[in-house]
Amino acid sequence: MASDDSLHHQNHHHNHTLNGLHSPKEEEGAKGGEEPNNNKRFKLSSKLITPEEIQSEFSHHDPAVARINNGSFGCCPQSVIAAQRRWQLHYYRQPDHFFLNCLKPAILRSRTLVASLINAPSADDISLVDNATTAAAIVLQHAAWSFHEGRSRPGDAAVMLHYAYGAVKKSVHAYIARAGARVVEVALPFPVHSPADIVAEFRRALDLARDGGARKVRLAVIDHVTSMPAVVIPVKELVKICREEGVDQVFVDAAHGIGCVDVDVQDIGADFYASNLHKWFFCPPAVAFLYCRRRPSSQGDDLHHPVVSHEYGNGLAIESAWIGTRDYSPQLVVPEVMEFLARFDGGIDGIKRRNHEAVVEMGRMLANAWGTHLGCPPEMCGSMIMVGLPACLGIEGEDDALRLRTHLRDEFGVEVPIYFRPPKEGEVGVVTGYARISYQVYNKVEDYHKFRDVISRFVSDGFTCALLSG
């Protein structure tokens, strides 16, 4: 590897602008005398995609499965998969030319498009990485170094939501708790009735973290959309509170952000904002972006990718664009995703609006059929919503929830995550299980009717999760 990477290190500094980008499709045209269209603008198409074309774009999905779980792994249309394959073949055809002449400008073009989508000041503020967990590692590594190097003191605090994604919670402990931070979790209510409930608990957690003013809060980790249970968090208001209360830095983990909820990083105001592009933005796995807000001081200068390669020290965006020989194609197809989005009425904003309206409608339909309720008000959900399952199913723990999910998948062809909400002291006969349903452009009403009918049949047959324990 040393010789190939050394060659890359010596020669790949000359393609830093969009003018050098030749996509596989454009190179074919250029050979015939055409000038590659490197500055294509993605206007909405005058010919909107039809329902039949949508189903064709996702014809690789298993037709026997009601796939109402886009939130876990996302989806990728055929046209984008084809573009990814072209990039992969471009690499296989002549790897040296691909790595030395094509990769960096192609990644820059994707970064530039992402920056425009989220209102970042510049593509220089955007790094492309594998996933939001990698982005979290970059931010938390940076925070840990502040303890190791004496800028933070042992006992200074970090605050995160109780419902933070499991991998991120473990990363907080692996990086900064190990370095000496005191970690305080924000206890969030569920079901949740209003954003005010979350704001109140966040203020209480900050008070606890400061311990009467004796400690400094160095980092707040805030989800934009929690994963399980799925709730849209009032991030802008929480970031504002952090600024008022003197929290050093704020990282918004928005794994479900772009394509699911509105994202304007300058309006949100966090120091770091990360979102997957393969969940709700139709990219193939795995790719995410990390936005880093520029600060007057040099505090962001020592942000580094956890995989150290030849680009170390050239800035996080450049470091992340080369972490050794690997498949970079998921990072290169953002232009083709934009072309796909342009075929929909209203583009990505129209998709978000319709997905939100549809998932609320389907959630209400299910709750009415089962005599239960939603886990949050409609305004606190994006393209996912929590729906209470009948209490008579006897979901008494996380093992029951997992077994029920597996049973639904294996026996009935329904793919949906199940969340266990422990009953509070004194509660009897309450809803303890919630289904997290998603809605994406490929979904049909029949998917949710199938789920409704299976659960209703369980109820009429006297089924309980205890029957799955054997």
Describe this structure in words.
The protein is of the alpha/beta class and 470 residues long. It has 2 domains: 113-337, Type I PLP-dependent aspartate aminotransferase-like (Major domain) (Aspartate Aminotransferase, domain 2), CATH 3.40.640; 347-468, Aspartate Aminotransferase, domain 1, CATH 3.90.1150.10. It has helices at residues 2-11, 24-31, 51-57, 70-73, 78-93, 95-118, 132-148, 166-179, 195-210, 235-244, 265-268, 316-320, 329-332, 334-341, 347-370, 398-412, 445-461; strands at 66-67, 126-129, 157-161, 182-186, 217-223, 249-253, 272-276, 288-292, 384-388, 414-415, 418-420, 433-438. The strands form 3 sheets. It has a 7-stranded mixed β-sheet, with helices on both faces. α8 (166-179) links the parallel β3 and β4. α5 runs antiparallel to α6, α7 runs parallel beside α8 and α15 (347-370) runs parallel beside α17 (445-461). The protein is globular and about 65 Å long. The chain starts with a helix and ends in a 9-residue tail after the last helix. It holds the Pfam family Aminotran_5. Residues 1-41 are annotated as: Disordered. Residues 77-298 form the Aminotransferase class V domain.
